[in-house]
Amino acid sequence: MAAPPRPAFVVWNPLTTSIYDSITDYLSSPDRDARSAAVALTSMMTPYMSSASDIQNLCHLWGVIFFMATTFHPSSPKHSLLVDLVLEIRKCSVPPFLGLLEYEKQWRCSFWVDLPMWRAVWDDYEFDAPLVPRMGERENDRSLLENKFLPGPWRNRDGGPMPSTSWASLNALGARLHAQTDLALLDVRALFALMEALEDERSARALDEVVPAASCKMTLGPFASYLACCWAF
Questions:
Q1: What's the structural domain count of the chain?
Q2: DSSP code of 51?
Q3: Which residues are bridge partners to 51 per DSSP?
Q4: Range of the domain at 67
Q5: CA angle (208 as vertex; 201, 81 as ends), nearest 5
Q6: Angle at Cα 133 formed by Cα 128 and Cα 134, nearest 5°?
Q7: Does residue 3 fall inside a structural domain?
Q8: Cross-strand pairs, 98
Q9: Per the domain annotation, does 195 fall within a domain?
Q10: 174/158 Cα distance (integer angstroms)
């Protein structure tokens, strides 16, 4: 069976094309190895990481991984394969770019351990999430000010929301990863998904769009930590 054609946002960029093809091979190969795939991907990024100002090139890596997650059902075993890949990426060697120490100090993170630029791309995908109101319609939203990569090439070109199943699938990826790490950025995303489903009164149609994503967080992630976040909030 022939592989599906690459999505339009992949074709125009050689780096994105290489990332997409590499991850596709990893997911489809019976001889896949998450460690080898992670090393190949991070090595692929090295030429694009010559200085701290090039950090945004990492967005293409997460953008492709998130896009692939949205194409699989939330219960698909492919999500576990993607999580395995991300966990191995966290163990990879740091790219030797200028300004690394300054970058890590500024953002209080460790490269690759804290998944640099992950949150920026996740926030970007939230702008296409089937939320009511949509993220772009919310006043004083901090992500509008903090996310400098908007809009990413993976965004819906017609301006419409992604299907609720795709949004749930992305959250399934985040929940599975959260269950195996202590990354604070995943606590924030979990809390957001729960608040969207539980905090305000919503129509039945609006709930249909956000409850599947919240359900993934509650059933696939470390639910106790979510409750702790909610109580602290």
A1: 1
A2: B
A3: 98
A4: 8-232
A5: 125
A6: 15
A7: no
A8: 51
A9: yes
A10: 26
Contact residues for 209 (Cβ-Cβ < 8 A; gap 6+):
130, 131, 132, 161, 164, 167
Looking at the predicted structure, is the pLDDT value of residue 33 above 70?
yes
What Å distances lie between residue 41 and 31, 172, 179, 180, CA to CA? 17, 22, 23, 21
Q: What pTM did the predictor assign?
A: 0.84
Query: How confident is the prediction for the chain on average, in pLDDT?
Result: 80
Find the largest Cα–Cα distance for the chain.
51
Query: Would residue 1 count as lying in a domain?
Result: no
Cβ–Cβ under 8 Å, residues 20 and 10: yes
Where would I find the beta strands (DSSP E) of the chain?
Answer: none
Tell me the C-alpha to C-alpha distance, in Å, between residue 39 and each of 48, 65, 87, 92, 110: 15, 15, 11, 6, 17
Q: How many helices (H) and strands (E) does the chain have?
A: 12, 0
Q: Say whether pLDDT at 31 is over 50.
A: yes
Residue 92 to residue 113: CA distance in whole angstroms: 8
9: Cβ–Cβ under 8 A, 6 or more apart, which residues?
Answer: 16, 63, 67, 153, 154
In a domain, 2, yes or no: no
